[in-house]
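Lab meeting, item 3. Inverse folding demo.
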C-alpha cells in the first residue's frame, strides 16, 4: 500500500503540472463551447421574431428610468418617435463594436446608436432632421455633437469617478455579484478612457464649469420652444432627452441635477414634455425584466 502511494506521489510530481493544465484546458473549452452554443441559439431566436422588428440589445432597466445608459435611452426614444416596432433584449448588452446599445434587424447586427438611427431613418423613411431648414440642420448637428461627444464625457466623469459608480449601482433593480466584484476594474478602465479623451485631465470643479456652460447654451437656444428645433421633436431631441433624463433621475446629489432642475428650469420642463409625449408608459417600463 505504501509503495503504491509513493509511486502515485512520484507520478504526480512528474506529471501533475501537465495533468492540471489539461484539466484547465478542458474546463475552459467546455465553457467556450457552452457560450458559443448559447450565442448561436440567441441569434436563431432573434432572427425568428419577424420581418422589420428591431431588437435593441442594451444594459438593464433602472429603478427610475427605462435604461441606465443615455445611448440606449436615446435609441429607444427615437424608435418611439419614428413609430418603429422594437423589443428589448438584456442577455447580450454589448455588440459587434463592444458598445451598448446595438441592434438585430432581420438577422443582421449593427452597433453605434447614432449610425443605427441614421440607418433606420433611411430604411423606414423617418428622417425628421431632413424636414428642418439648412440652418436648423446645422444647429441640430452641432447640439447633437455637444451632447454625445462633450456632455457625455463630463457626465461619465461624475458617474464613474466622482461618484465611484455608487449612484448607478443604487439605481439597478438587481446587482449581480460579478458586477460588484468588477466595479473597481470598470472604473479604472473608464477613467483611463476619460483621461485619454481629455476632459479627465481637468479638476472636478473645472469640469462642472465646462458642462454648465454647455447646459446654459442649450437652455438659451431652447428658450420657450416645445422642443429644441421647434414645435415638433426630431433626432437631436432623442439624444438630448437620453442624457438629461439620466441627470434628472440617476444623478442624485450631482451638481448637474441642480443645474437641470433649478438653475435652468426650462430643461427640466423639456425633459418632462418629451417623457409625456413619447413615454406615456414610463412607469410600466420601469418594471424589472423577467
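The presenter then showed the designed sequence:
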Amino acid at each position: 500500500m505504501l509503495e503504491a502511494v509513493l509511486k502515485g506521489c512520484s507520478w504526480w510530481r512528474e506529471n501533475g503540472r501537465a495533468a492540471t493544465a489539461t484539466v484547465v484546458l478542458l474546463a475552459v473549452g467546455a465553457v467556450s463551447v457552452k457560450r458559443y452554443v448559447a450565442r448561436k441559439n440567441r441569434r436563431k431566436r432573434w432572427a425568428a421574431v419577424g420581418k422589420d422588428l428591431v431588437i435593441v440589445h442594451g444594459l438593464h432597466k433602472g429603478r427610475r428610468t427605462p435604461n441606465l445608459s443615455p445611448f440606449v435611452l436615446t435609441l429607444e426614444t427615437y424608435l418611439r418617435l419614428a413609430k418603429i416596432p422594437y423589443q428589448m433584449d438584456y442577455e447580450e448588452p454589448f455588440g459587434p463594436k463592444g458598445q451598448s446599445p446595438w441592434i438585430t434587424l432581420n438577422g443582421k447586427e449593427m452597433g453605434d446608436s447614432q449610425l443605427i438611427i441614421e440607418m433606420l431613418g433611411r430604411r423606414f423613411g423617418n428622417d425628421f432632421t431632413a424636414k428642418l431648414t439648412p440652418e436648423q440642420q446645422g444647429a441640430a448637428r452641432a447640439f447633437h455633437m455637444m451632447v454625445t461627444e462633450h456632455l457625455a464625457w463630463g457626465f461619465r466623469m461624475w458617474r464613474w469617478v466622482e461618484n465611484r459608480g455608487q449612484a448607478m449601482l443604487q439605481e439597478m433593480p438587481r446587482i449581480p455579484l460579478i458586477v460588484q466584484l468588477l466595479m473597481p476594474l470598470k472604473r479604472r478602465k473608464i477613467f483611463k478612457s476619460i483621461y485619454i479623451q481629455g476632459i479627465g485631465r481637468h479638476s472636478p470643479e473645472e469640469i462642472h464649469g465646462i458642462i454648465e456652460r454647455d447646459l446654459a447654451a442649450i437652455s438659451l437656444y431652447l428658450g420657450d420652444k416645445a422642443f429644441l428645433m421647434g414645435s415638433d421633436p426630431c433626432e437631436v431631441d432623442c439624444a438630448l432627452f437620453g442624457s438629461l433624463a439620466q441627470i434628472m433621475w440617476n444623478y442624485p446629489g450631482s451638481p448637474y441635477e441642480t443645474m437641470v432642475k433649478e438653475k435652468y428650469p426650462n430643461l427640466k420642463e423639456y425633459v418632462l414634455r418629451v417623457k409625456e409625449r413619447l413615454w406615456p408608459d414610463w412607469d410600466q417600463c420601469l418594471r424589472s425584466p423577467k
